[in-house]
Write a structure and sequence with these properties.
2 copies of one chain form a homodimer.
Chain A lengths: L4 H4 L3 H19 L3 H9 L21 H6 L13 E6 L9 E5 H17 L7 E4 L7 H13 L2 E3 L6 H10 L4 E4 L1 H13 L4 H4 L4 E5 L5 H11 L2 E8 L4 E7 L6 E3 L4 E6 L13 E7 L10 E7 L1 E2 L11 E2 L10 E3 L2 E3 L1 H9 L4 E12 L2 E10 L7 H19 L4 E5 L14 E3 L4
Parallel strand pairs in A: 3-4, 3-5, 5-6, 6-7, 17-20, 18-19
Antiparallel strand pairs in A: 1-2, 7-8, 8-9, 9-14, 10-11, 11-12, 13-14, 15-16, 17-18
Bound molecules: zinc ion (2 copies).
Chain lengths: ~425, ~425
């Protein structure tokens, strides 16, 4: 019912036709907002400027700073009486960002979320428990509306109160859960503490995880703990919320719904597109939002397009799980590097701990990349073994970042500890 | 658009026809649930047992204890695949109560809330901020869906964070708010603390207040503080949530939507109906709920039907604001008395404080009702004035409870203080 083969497996050429049509429509609509009237007007851009998908590059970017400057309603492209909901960020620094929705927008959003959930096997016979915060958090109402549309039995548990979550899981026979990865792990702990083995004593089979960066290893661990399949979900409030990109049952990247979003991956320095398969900043244009279209919105999220076709038959391209924020990117010898790339490799070595430090320094006339990483608790101090490990790490890092770093293994506890967000990169170059 | 004169001003005779038809249908549906199959089956009751509205008295009552005993799904009357949402109480003592909804139920619930909001002048040009908790609290999703259906711009602020609520009110031009009375007062305080006079510096004009008992004096004070009209809302999760009864712009009682609920007011002791206008326990039967109809549900809420017609032209009868819980009722000399009746009268005397104590004692062969009440801070100690005041209070109380109590004015601070729920009634009678 929420599988639409004519859209999800559409031929790329047909998809591009649809995208051009919807892009032109979105520009027509956007021109009714003060912000786009100004910035598109200055460049003389109208829907007539677009005849292919690539023509989107004629448009200027939209940034979070623009949303803040035109706070609260300067990007709204319709009469306010057509707006039926807004979602506001918490805005801890400066003005919050506000996204406005028409009834059409909420409908399409719910349809998209229903499509994602259907794709991973959730049906009207499932019991879906949503542990996201409700209210302004788009993960709450977003999944609520989508799951209701699908006809699942929704349990709007909202965030917190793990014992109550556990009671819901067991008493209502919950089969599918939406949670951030760390909370999914926490729930597993509480279940076991209550003497409930989630693999045998519950009906859990599907977990939707999003919002928080996590590795493939973490996913596997959560899947084993809870006895579920865990699927990555990508969304952001600027793009309505959840339902932007989602993994299919092959778990090999997230299909981004290209009938609703036009995707670009750009180099955050040059702002030019990167070749397919390379990491860059995700830029999204809404193709089916009426109250407040966003054109070429710089998400600051880093990802890459996964080349090739997905065995599921869907033609919407897949993005890789997020690689961090573009603000974290640094450039060494002309190569863009993201801390997440390095972290991903280091995490693959069981011999290593979790603490590391990236240093970039000018030595002579060259910029050098150095990576200090702590050893794990029980690893040997046999010199040849350490040397062999160093060599292997260096090799694997070079494969990933196309640059040979100087890797140094250090004792556990010898790198600076930090609470919360660790400072992982020290740039000591002369500017 | 959400004013339906053909329903809201329907002739009473037509309304009763509709009620009979819907009651029969609800019984047919309910018989599919294990609970009603059993308790209706035992009495041989089917929809054929009903030919007039009064025939509802053939049915047994349903209580919260029944919901708990048949937890979680024993009252569900449809295939679980048709259930799209449940709301669960927190269940601090014993099993929670769980209410299940089909898509039809959610639709009708949203329509009802939209009808209430439209009735007090809220339109698609309004900005509606909901300060209710979301998730399992029915005031969150209930008002969210209703207000969206009406086309208002909804601001799903959810509970707490008053400074952020104030920012939303001013930045988004909020015109209508849903809040419990104490939180509305709190918001007014915070607005003034921020240097914002809600009467001049905001667009607030409508307040929806519910869930918490409050007096007419409190309503008036909140209206003056915020510069709004405040309307009483009545709902409970067992009856889906908000949208059961609501005040019209005449603010003279709450129209209970009799196309969706069949109302009885009973004596909680004898379980017989009380005469129109007298206080008793509200008993409700859902007439338009498919997943989980409730028949003759004892709400434990005390109210009365306000006799006469409302100038607004709506024919659905009005209930008075809640008078407390039927569990609080006590009987003296064959008269049912509720503490709220006494409190209401005492609060009308500016000379009095807020602390009082009701004592019932057997003196000789008679039960006597005694009311000790503290004087206010600045009141005189002139004997004749005190005597005059005592006389007047006694007189007004007799009018209300049809019994002459012994009233004693006492010094401020001389009655036992209590944190939270005050113990207001001491029953010292020999049983
Ligand atoms: Zn796929
Ligand atoms: Zn009226």
């Amino acid at each position: 019912m929420y599988y639409q083969p004519e859209i999800e497996t559409i031929k790329r050429s047909e998809l591009q036709k649809l995208q051009v049509e919807r892009l032109k429509r979105s520009i027509d609509i956007a021109l009714h907002s003060p912000f786009y009237a100004k910035i598109l007007g200055e460049k003389g851009i109208t829907s007539d400027s677009i005849s292919t998908v690539e023509d989107i590059r004629k448009l200027p970017f939209t940034t979070k700073a623009d949303l803040r400057e035109y706070y609260p309603f300067g990007l709204v492209a319709t009469d306010m009486k057509n707006v039926v909901r807004l979602h506001s960020s918490s805005g801890t620094t400066g003005n919050p960002t506000v996204i406005c929705h028409s009834q059409h927008d909420l409908d399409q959003w719910a349809n998209r979320v229903a499509r994602c959930m259907y794709m991973v096997g959730i049906r009207n016979t499932d019991v879906f428990q949503n542990t996201s915060g409700y209210g302004m958090f788009t993960g709450g109402l977003g999944f609520q509306y989508g799951a209701e549309r699908l006809g699942a039995l929704t349990v709007p548990a909202a965030a917190g109160n793990s014992l109550r979550q556990v009671k819901f899981i067991t008493d209502f026979g919950t089969t599918a859960i939406h949670a951030i990865p760390s909370y999914a792990t926490r729930l597993a702990e509480v279940l076991f503490e209550c003497g409930i083995d989630p693999r045998k004593d519950t009906k859990l089979k599907t977990l939707i995880i999003g919002a928080e960066p996590h590795t493939e290893e973490q996913r596997k661990r959560i899947e084993e703990l809870l006895g579920v399949k865990a699927y990555n979900s990508f969304g952001m409030s600027e793009m309505s919320g959840p339902g932007v990109a989602f993994e299919c049952t092959y778990q090999n990247g997230l299909h981004l719904w290209e009938d609703c979003f036009l995707m670009e991956i750009i180099d955050p320095e040059t702002l030019e597109p990167v070749p397919d398969g390379e990491i860059g900043e995700l830029v999204l244009t809404t193709l089916d939002r009426d109250a407040m279209p966003l054109l070429r919105y710089r998400t600051r999220d880093l990802t890459r397009i996964i080349p090739g076709e997905c065995p599921c038959g869907r033609t919407h391209r897949r993005i890789d799980r997020l690689k961090g924020r573009s603000d974290d990117m640094f450039i060494v010898k002309g190569v863009n590097i993201f801390p997440m790339q390095i972290e991903k490799i280091l995490l693959q070595f069981k011999e290593l701990g979790t603490n590391y430090l990236i240093t970039i320094e000018t030595i002579g006339n060259n910029d050098e990349l150095m990576i200090d990483v702590e050893l794990g608790e029980l690893f040997t101090d046999d010199y040849s073994q350490l040397q062999q490990l160093t060599k292997e790490i260096t090799h694997r890092l070079k494969d990933e970042i196309l640059l040979t770093p100087k890797v140094k293994l250090v004792d556990r506890g010898s790198l600076p500890q930090s609470d919360g967000k660790a400072v992982r990169v020290k740039d000591l170059r002369k500017k």
